[in-house]
User: Fold ATP adenylyltransferase from Kribbella amoyensis.
Amino acid sequence: MTDRPGDHPTGAEQSSSPESPGSPYLPDELAEQDGVGVPDPFLRLWTPHRMAYIAGENKPTSTEAGSGCPFCRIPTLSDADGLITARADAAYAVLNLYPYNPGHLMVVPYRHVADYTELTPAEVGDVARLTQQAMEAVRIVSSAHGFNIGMNQGVIAGAGIAAHLHQHVVPRWGGDTNFMPVIGQTKVLPQLLSDTRALLAKSWPTD
Assistant:
């Protein structure tokens, strides 16, 4: 979302002290933190959860199947804990833990297989059907204008977890690539993943 005139408080609306709780300059938990420096008019987006992604904390160290592979482990969890939005016989749909956009889903076969050509006809069918359903659910929940759909095959092609195939379903809206990701390398996600999962699961179409 881009800023518009009037989006930020001015004049009397900014009468509270920058050092006081409720300051428009600092989050309450930082308002009285020692050493925060001189207050300024900039708002900060604190995203410490992304350090796990930056540091590669959740990236498997082995290419083998099992609990060390996130995509093998996720189906053993409850839907809510695993952020799963739907399950089919041979594949499942799950929210991306580090989404590009709100509602960024992945469709994953249960079987630990790396290459698309190794999927069985049943797996191909479930991956395709879940992809269609993901698009329908996201359109219902957030009126996506379009989608990027695809899979990165191999590390050289950009796959973060190359050993277990997964297809991305990324919703897109007009203007969603603004100055934040282009200049600041930051995506602004306005909704908790647990809330997104609940909305999509509720709106998921049935066969």
